[in-house]
Predict the structure.
Amino acid sequence: MKIYTIGFTRKSAKEFFEILKRNDVKQVVDIRLNNTSQLAGFTKKNDLAYFLKELCGIEYYHFKFLAPTKEIRDRYIESKDWDVYVEEYLRLLEERGVIDKLERSFFEMRTCLLCSEPTAEHCHRRLLAEYLKKQWGDVEVVHL
């Protein structure tokens, strides 16, 4: 099974949707805390769901319980301590019982985790994808 990840920052709408289509993504799981941001107009919740469906035939889901808390995010923005952020986010996934709330079969449908960061290097989408790989085994993570 492959789990894809993508960030929309520094991508035009054309580039963003073409990447998803080219990789035959079937569903996008938005893991942002706030999916109504003005950061990129095409990625606001209702607009994004519409564009994904109409342009690409992709289903849209927002799983807020996979997002870091505002407090965790704010501490990271202030401290820039990535190691602390990783520790706090992974602990949050455990506390929320994420692995019990997610069905592996759901992710077998060419699923892509969405966040805003331009690359996965310092983004919770990478941490989540790696967490799922560790829990489920036999998962390939592909960052788009």
About this structure: The chain has one domain: 2-143.
